[in-house]
Specification:
Layout (H helix, E strand, L loop, with lengths): L23 E6 L3 E6 L4 E5 H6 L30 E5 L2 E5 L5 E4 L1 H6 L5 E2 L16 E4 H6 L1 H14 L1 E5 L7 H6 L13 E4 L15 E4 L11 E9 L2 E2 L2 E5 H11 L1 H9 L2 E6 L4 E6 L2 E3 L5 E4 L13 H18 L5 E4 L6 E5 L3 E5 L2 E2 L5 E8 L1 H18 L6 E2 L7
Length: about 400
């Protein structure tokens, strides 16, 4: 079947390429929706209200900002909208009762069929399976161009963990990397922090003790998304880095002990960090899911759990679930452990992947990491922009997909 030319027939105020796709064959009016049929026999229904709301003409979309100008509330015909429809030169043309005309590109409509998912380059999270090893991307490739960044971002968003290798042993290199994608997320520890043993610490990370697996700052309403840790020195004995896939552990618990999963999902508890200058607290469950039941977040940090405000019976049941979840985190099937080397950076999804470290002896050598946080929105945005360029350069690449992979 012939595809449309690379140039769209109608400008739809959309930057992601949409000109590829089957041509329109016809349309058929139904009571509340218009059925669109393409030359490849695909079909889809769009409500008349949806079509009116998505008109992309300069009156309905700002030609520079691409933002919606049309306001359904001010259109007295909106709720009863039903246009005259025709296919003209491969374009869907709708003429509304008030005289307004809307034109829709065939490829754009095909991308936005209700059952399809636009493949914008952002991967779905995939649970670690036994034997998982994180992807490694050379520092030079990351800093050198689109392909290295795409590889690094894809691995990070898919697996929740990725390593960057062979970087310079320079102070603030983690800042230079972070700023490729957006501003650093500041917390009460600053925008960029040093992980090293220091006197009078206000956090266990600034000691030489071992750190149990945890997520950072679960006491915030919105904990940091992505953490970067850049190794400058690691000569001390011990101090290996520990990681576990919290999503995979939560899913395993859901299947193996559903009542314990529900206990951790449905019972909010208190998290709190306090020092001389800060007192940040929130009440939230250990496991959070979205409205489809997908795992969205894990909050686990035994140091900063606050007082457990539950009746005795509920408290005892919660502790049982909590200890089983904690024990699962330690199982080898969900974990990877390794020692960071100078010039190496690990990046991980702090709301999914738990991290920790073994104890180290500061008398045997120096250990110095620099870290920062990034909002995942900036990383996904960067990957979408890269995907737009890749799709524009590859006319035969499909732009839609109905296959979705996720944590299982």
């Amino acid at each position: 079947m012939q595809s449309q030319s690379q140039s769209p027939a109608v400008e739809m105020s959309e930057l992601f390429p949409y000109a590829q796709g089957p041509a329109l064959r016809t349309s058929q009016a139904h009571d509340k929706a218009l059925e669109i049929i393409w030359e490849n026999a695909d079909s889809a229904r769009f409500s008349y209200r949806w079509l009116r709301d998505h008109c992309a003409c300069p009156e309905c979309r700002h030609p520079m900002t691409r933002e919606r100008l049309y306001m359904p509330l001010e259109d007295e015909n909106f709720l009863n909208a039903r246009p005259e429809a025709s296919v003209e030169d491969g374009v869907l043309v709708l003429r509304w009762a008030d005289g307004h005309e809307s034109r829709f590109d065939a490829g754009w409509l095909h991308q936005r069929r209700p059952e399809s998912r636009i493949d914008d380059g952002v991967p779905r999270a995939e649970a670690w399976r036994e034997g998982f090893t994180p992807a490694h991307v050379p520092h030079a490739e990351m800093m050198g161009g689109h392909e290295g960044r795409r590889e690094w971002l894809t691995a990070l968003l898919r697996d929740g963990l990725v390593l960057l290798d062979d970087g310079p042993r320079e102070l603030e290199e983690v800042v230079r990397i972070a700023e490729l994608f957006g501003p650093m997320r500041a917390t009460n520890f600053g925008a960029r922090f040093d992980v090293q043993s220091k006197p009078n610490p206000n956090n266990a990370a600034y000691t030489a003790i071992g750190l149990e697996l945890h997520t950072d700052l679960p006491n915030w309403r919105h904990p940091p998304d992505i953490q970067l840790l850049y190794c400058l020195e690691n000569e001390a004995e011990g101090g290996e880095s520990l990681f576990a896939d919290g999503f995979a552990v939560a899913e395993a618990l859901r299947h193996e002990a559903p009542e314990l999963f529900l206990r951790l999902r449905d019972t909010p508890i208190d998290f709190r960090f306090q020092d001389e200058d800060s007192d940040i607290a929130v009440r939230a469950p250990v496991i959070e899911v979205d409205d489809t039941g997908r795992i969205r977040e894990v909050r686990f940090n035994n140091w900063i759990r606050d007082t457990l405000r539950l009746p005795p019976e509920e408290a005892d049941a919660w502790y049982e679930a909590y200890l089983v979840f904690w024990q699962r985190l330690r199982e080898p099937r969900f974990r990877v452990d390794f020692a960071l080397e100078p010039g190496q950076m690990v990046a991980f999804d702090n709301r999914r992947v738990l991290h920790g470290r073994g104890a180290f002896d500061p008398n045997t050598g120096r250990r110095h990491l620099q870290g920062t946080y990034l909002d995942i929105d900036h990383l996904e945005s960067h990957l979408r922009v890269l995907a737009r360029h890749a799709t524009s350069a590859a006319p035969d690449t499909p732009t839609t997909s109905t296959n979705e992979t996720g944590v299982s």
